[in-house]
Amino acid sequence: xxxxxxxxxxxxxxxxxxxxxxxxxxxxxxxxxxxxxxxxxxxxxxxxxxxxxxxxxxxxxxxxxxxxxxxxxxxxxxxxxxxxxxxxxxxxxxxxxxxxxxxxxxxxxxxxxxxxxxxxxxxxxxxxxxxxxxxxxxxxxxxxxxxxxxxxxxxxxxxxxxxxxxxxxxxxxxxxxxxxxxxxxxxxxxxxxxxxxxxxxxxxxxxxxxxxxxxxxxxxxxxxxxxxxxxxxxxxxxxxxxxxxxxxxxxxxxxxxxxxxxxxxxxxxxxxxxxxxxxxxxxxxxxxxxxxxxxxxxxxxxxxxxxxxxxx
Amino acid sequence: xxxxxxxxxxxxxxxxxxxxxxxxxxxxxxxxxxxxxxxxxxxxxxxxxxxxxxxxxxxxxxxxxxxxxxxxxxxxxxxxxxxxxxxxxxxxxxxxxxxxxxxxxxxxxxxxxxxxxxxxxxxxxxxxxxxxxxxxxxxxxxxxxxxxxxxxxxxxxxxxxxxxxxxxxxxxxxxxxxxxxxxxxxxxxxxxxxxxxxxxxxxxxxxxxxxxxxxxxxxxxxxxxxxxxxxxxxxxxxxxxxxxxxxxxxxxxxxxxxxxxxxxxxxxxxxxxxxxxxxxxxxxxxxxxxxxxxxxxxxxxxxxxxxxxxxxxxxxxxxxxxxxxxxxxxxxxxxxxxxxxxxxxxxxxxxxxxxxxxxxxxxxxxxxxxxxxxxxxxxxxxx
Lengths: 312, 383
Ligand SMILES: Nc1ncnc2c1ncn2[C@@H]1O[C@H](COP(=O)(O)OP(=O)(O)O)[C@@H](O)[C@H]1O
Ligand SMILES: [Mg+2]
Known about the structure:
The complex is a heterodimer.
Chain A: E1 3-14, E2 17-28, E3 32-36, H1 43-50, E4 58-63, E5 66-67, H2 73-76, E6 79-82, H3 94-103, H4 109-123, H5 138-150, E7 156-160, H6 168-183, E8 187-192, H7 195-201, E9 204-209, E10 212-217, H8 219-224, E11 228-236, H9 243-248, E12 253-259, E13 262-268, H10 273-283, E14 288-294, H11 298-306
Parallel strand pairs in A: 3-8, 3-9, 6-7, 7-8
Antiparallel strand pairs in A: 1-2, 1-4, 4-5, 9-10, 11-13, 11-14, 12-13
Chain B: H1 2-12, H2 15-35, E1 48-53, H3 59-71, E2 73-75, H4 81-89, E3 95-99, H5 103-109, E4 116-119, H6 124-145, H7 150-164, H8 174-208, H9 210-218, H10 223-253, H11 260-286, H12 290-307, H13 319-325, H14 329-342, H15 348-382
Parallel strand pairs in B: 1-2, 1-3
Antiparallel strand pairs in B: 3-4
The structure holds adenosine-5'-diphosphate and magnesium ion.
């Protein structure tokens, strides 16, 4: 597969502060790549650099094999961007807004009409064509924002946190829409600080922190790089002081996080961890209300790599 | 043309506001200009004038006094600017002139010393007096250039006087019509500012808000192209507003709008419209909040209209107010309207001050565009 984006050792400083620090990654044609990182980690800054909206201090960016500059109109014609903040004309109706932004790329009126209709269908705004933005709910507004960014059928799409503060219905609609765009051939870069979204959506995940890529791979690969393989949660009927020491001695146990009557027990790789624990508890006649096992999340990956939570 | 079409779509939303402005304005302008119509018995009574002479009593000064005395009643008055203003205001005098020191000497040398005059705005007899004075001075100038002495000029002027008296009266109706048009255009200062500036500012604000600008910027249409379409939109809207008022002027004052003076009004107001475009540009692009823009436009439109004499004739405003008003483009627009209204003879010399004032307006326009550019550049650096 050929690279659609090649980011090489980008450094971007705001004054003395390094927002991007030797950032480097590639995006291949047809991928959905998730850029996952907490607020302030440099996701928007890196997107703005890739789009030549921001000048950077060092490094180079190639898109479709060409150096990206503010004058790369040929390249720009193949790119669609959905920014973090909704950017539409308050004065224009839903249809007119999409038509305007599409018109910056597509000059032919008939083709444009078709494209705008398709975009409206994709984000599910059929009933709202003649509404003004201020008459739309937050979720619908986000969908309009997306339609404005993709109506011209770009083959490379950047989405910067498109689901922040969006109701679940709109969120699903948005994620489904992105999958559809990808199926029809578009390469997608998706930034977010929600790990569930990248797990659900992305072929490959780049974890970014303090302007650096600290991990890169599929979700399975990423989870493979950490020691935790399983997490078991137990809620005891009554907690005794010696439980923690007893359980710590069990096989494969890495760590215990206790809160009130509940233990979250991290295990490293190994077989029958849950079964062993259940057997141990019944041998010791320890009563519990709930017990269940989970696989580690990307938050665990992030926690192990940086020592802090993805969401603060 | 997407940007341009979109521009018009946004402007369409201003049409109701525009109509309200235009209707209200037209009613006011018509009321104001018709109340200024001078009574028709101007020819019956000689106007009252006051003179302060700072030159010595030369033969030429005596010629001027003699000439003025033939055409008016000279009233004694104290040399106090406030008393003189009051006298003008209460119609005790129709015209006031102050002859500067060494006037005769400079005049005979061929220089152009200025006689300071004050008159009642929109009053026919005042304008009549000014016309007479200018006429007499122009003729004397020709004589002086021809090498005549003061005494010779006196003789010739006295001879001329006996022949001419009714020549000037021919266009007795015109001044009041032209006056009305100038009052009308002085009023447009408010409308042009309120209307053009707010439309241009609001549309520019919409297009250059950071978020929209980003979208425009990443598109495959160049910023240059987008900007030139925006400029075309602005220009067409401004021209349209100008045209609407030209049509209203035509509807109210008829073919006088196509007289030389009428056309000068049209040119002057068009230039001013371009200046309002640049003001709208500056506000719309550099100020981020719509509320702030609207607030500033209200202050600018009303404030400049009062300070620069759009609603009240400039002659009635204090010198202090007028000296402040000089920093406003409106001042030069209105001054020009007044000069055009007083124009009696078309000559390059008479047109010169009008052209000069138009240059000032053009200067302001350039200044506002440059300022907009500088501020945008500074902002870009800080982002
Ligand atoms: N214009 C700016 N000036 C100074 N610092 C900035 C500016 N924009 C962003 N930053 C800083 O750069 C870092 C990365 O910001 P950003 O790329 O917006 O993060 P993200 O999109 O991942 O939340 C943050 O610490 C932010 O405070
Ligand atoms: Mg961001």
